[in-house]
Amino acid sequence: MKKHTKVQTVAGSLTTTVPAFVRDMFDLKKGDTLEWTIDTKEEKITLTKKE
């Protein structure tokens, strides 16, 4: 599954939104921790919810 979001500037930081269906699917809430795995060779970012 793919979902496209735009990157925006907020208070000097770059941010993006988490689509509602993803938030609901993974039960994301304010304060949850997401781990970013960054693959510079493939130009790919993977997000994982940390329990």
Number of helices: 1
Please give the number of β-strands: 4
Helix coverage percent:
10-25%
Roughly what fraction of the amino acids lie in strands?
35-45%
Explain how this protein is built:
This protein has 51 residues and is mainly beta. It has a two-stranded antiparallel sheet with strand order 1-2. A two-stranded antiparallel sheet has the order 3-4. The protein contains 1 helix and 4 strands; from the N terminus they run E-E-H-E-E. The relative contact order is 0.17. The protein has a single domain, classed as Ribbon (Pemi-like Protein 1, Chain: D), CATH 2.10.260. A hairpin with a 4-residue loop joins strand 3 and strand 4. The two termini are 23 Å apart. It is globular. The protein has one helix at 20-25, and strands spanning 8-10, 13-15, 33-39, 44-50.
Would you spell out the secondary-structure blueprint of this structure?
Layout: E1 8-10, E2 13-15, H1 20-25, E3 33-39, E4 44-50
Antiparallel strand pairs: 1-2, 3-4
Can I get a quick summary?
The protein is mainly β.
Keyword list:
two-stranded antiparallel sheet; mainly beta; 51 residues; Pemi-like Protein 1, Chain: D; 12% helix; single chain; 39% strand
